[in-house]
Amino acid sequence: MKTRTKIFFYALLSLVSLLFIGPFLILVSSALKSPDQPVYSFPPQILPLPPVLHWFAEAWTKIPFPRYLFNSLLLELLTVPAYLAVSALAAYPLARMRFRGRQFMFFLILSTMFLPGEVMLVPRFLVISQLGMVDSFAGVVLPGLLSAFGVFLLRQAFEQVPRELSDAARIDGCNEFQIFWRVVLPQVRPTLATLAIFGFLNVWNNFIWPLVVLKSDDKYPISLGLAYLQGIFGDDVRSLAAGTVMAILPVIVFFIAMQKHFIDGMKGAVKG
Known about the structure:
about 70% helix, disordered C terminus, globular
């Protein structure tokens, strides 16, 4: 590739990156601006002069922010490992076993991806209500354990694992679960990491379902806490921006920790 072509592509990618990161930079800038510096201006003033941290303390103390943050982290801890386990256990037989109706079952699972989440609110709430899980973390976690996307992604990854490995393990005396746990599952760790990122984002950003299930304020996750914060501050953009930045930071940290597996994990779905 010629030097001019490389320069053009790098410049184009830089512009696209700025387009995506621009709103986040404006958000951080708004959270650091003093009362004398306008938030809405054209062209936008990105650099806060001088930067202040008062709005972060305001957002942290006006609502039980630490409690909401703890609730979200607890929901992540309860949901993501179980979400990965259920998706893997559902995807493995669809990818590695031969039985009648396998393809039909797979397409039936995929068909649920085309249903809007709002359609399932009432049936899910009725089931959770009958199980006595209203206003509990279990009621928030249970409906999110099975995902058609997770089954699809892991099925594609399982199909990429050479069957010779399974045959060799079977000859050595391993049963099907041992083959799944010791042979096949370690081969798809990048895909599991990718699915963990998607699962983490889904749980962290989930708003409607916790709002429907939870009745007690002290059980709210951070997504509902930000809505509560908006109700308190109203038009106070700086405090709202500070609260949003603090809510985003755990997601950024988790993605940075898992990003090295992200590209490798997506390759399995593309090849399949």
